[in-house]
Fold this protein.
Amino acid sequence: MIRDQIKSAIDQALAHQADDLHLNSPEIEIQGLLNVERPRHGTFGDYAINVSPLAKYARKAPPQIASQIMDQLGNHFWETSVAGGFINLQISPELLTKSLIGIAKTEKPGQNQVYSSLHCLLEFVSANPTGPLHIGHGRWVALGDSLGRLMRHCGAAVTNEFYINDAGSQMRSIANSIWYRALEILGTGGKLPEPQEGQPYPFYPGEYVIEMAQEFLTEHKDQVLAWDNPEHVAPEAALTELMSYSKTSMLAKQKALMERCRLTFDVWFSEQTLHQAGQVKQVIQTLQERGFTYEKDGALWFASSRLGDDQDRVLIKSDGSYTYLTADIAYHENKFQRDNGFYNLMINIWGADHHGYIPRMKAAVAALGYNPDYLEILLGQLVNLIIDGEKTRMGKRKKMMTLEDLVDEVGVDAVRFWMVSKSQDTTLDFNVELAASASDENPVFYVQYAHARCASILRNAFQPRLDTLTQETKPPLLQEPEWQDFLAQLSPESMADLLDGIENEPAKQALRELILKLDGFQDKVLDAVRQRSPHTIARYSQDVAADFHRFYNVCRILVSDPAVAKKRLVVIYALKKVLAQALELLGVSAPEQM
RNA sequence: GCCUCAGUAGCUCAGUUGGAUAGAGCAACCGCCUUCUAAGCGGUAGGUCAUAGGUUCGAAUCCUAUCUGGGGUACCA
């Protein structure tokens, strides 16, 4: 990577001049003191170094420092110049070509081992098996899966995990709801109770529950009739049966949808198993032994405020049942203990509505004796649906648009790209009409089109050509074996004059920019992991596509001279790899044609 | 009240160890298809980076206060 080469050259130059620039005191870390960046305006060169941060040590004017350092940077890989406090570098065609060859020869561009010591348990989506996944879940699908893919690309071991909330009171609620819907269908007189003002409503009013009831009745009609009673209250046996049915049915649907979204969970972790294995009971005992619990008002409390939470939390309610938090603490202890403490980073992706939950979870981890810094909560802001130009709050509608509906309408690629193309720190407005109807307004097609164009060019090189003037069919520009040999023996010599052979100046500039952009891919991947921001990869893919389309318009690839065409084809070959890799990291398909 | 995310072009958003003239897409307007995919490209226009202070050689970026909007503030999950 070009930037790394410049960085080490700079560090060397600084070390060499440390005395003169007064950089030799021990508290100054020379490495990384200066930043190597791509200037916003191409007129300043390909890369730039701002030396102003040195001025306070060197006690010299920045332009003077710049020219002093520049003298040490002499190197046939780039030309240097000074403007104010900046050293500008113009990268040589040789180095650009070398970089391109490197990409063409790499199996997976951007792949590295920088995070090879990272063992990450990545938990996301984690919905209740009480209903379909909604559109907001789509954001966690896109964000979490892309982040996991990016981390693996940087050498980390990542486990994708889905926590199934199958043990709480919401399971009883869905069972009761299905029960009443079934009675409504059967017409026995039982019906779903109306909500009471100011009272919690322990039922699911959604229309999908009616479908679930219908489905349940096809197999269990006689049983439901047998269960029903004059009061129409569901007997315990019915609820047990319905909870089990709901879980099985919804989980199967969720799994199928995740698969459709190209997301694989390595572990589906059931909350119920924690209760069954006695781990919830056990974790309370551990907290008690460590002195973080006390009894008050008939409940058992966790003294989380001693560990940074703003108030204490209930572990066992006065009715004797556990809170959600209690099982969650047991779950997190399980994560820390899993595989003999294999994981050194737990990332949980949560919606912003769970923000207040972070301090108590961190407190719990600390109370159990683990390092709370190993638990990282990635908060994502929520998704607003825009329907008919109006913002619709999630959950306000009886008939909500589900994630599956959305995938049906716009396709997996558009959903995944759209959901991950904006920073998770901003509320996402999902305009359904726009995503569904105006496909050419969707940036995902722009990137995919660039990839398909590359594929098309690579196909055409080996196809017989039709001369439109004479109507003659000419032989293909290249033969496969010849091209394969050329690829296998790529070298600065065989690629010489790739850039200098282009006389048209805009085309040469466009190609330089394209190669520089491809060269920066690994940096982008590393940044995305470090900042937990897959959206930068979505943006990058659009940048690369734009650079390519620009280049394509000013420079023909398949020119009649096969020697020239081959070299340009290497650009397309490397570019296609990078585009495909970027799209794969986002979980978006890279079509061979469109 | 407190916690938290955001406020940048008409719209949707980029912009991270603070650096040169503020960046894209869409929408608008003007151009570009006899040759590799026009789902493309070029150009024009569009900005007091919410406001006010502060730190700094230098601030969209850091600090403080204020304003506006989202989310949270359960013995719900």
About this structure: The longest helix of chain A spans residues 236-260. Residues 170-245 of chain A form one domain.
